[in-house]
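Sequence in, structure out. Go.
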Amino acid sequence: MILEGVQALILTDLKQGNIILDLVFRSTGEITPSDIEELYGVGPGTPQAATLLKSTTERGLQVLEINPTYGAQGLVLFQNWNLSQRDVQP
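Output:
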């Protein structure tokens, strides 16, 4: 998966053997204030959070939420994504 135009990223608990449970994509209209607060480290209900959410909506950005069974979890704020397959060399 290739994420283009990444604007903000927060990942925690990167570990060897990470197991991703699911990936949740949220379109512009589905991005929540709590997404913005977490991505930018701003307080809930602050004017800065409202401004960032408005800017995110105006720019048509999306969020990818990474939910683990074990290991890394996080959010990515980005413009576009592509899925490509690569040949793995032994």
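Check: Residues 2-82 form one domain. The mean pLDDT is 92.
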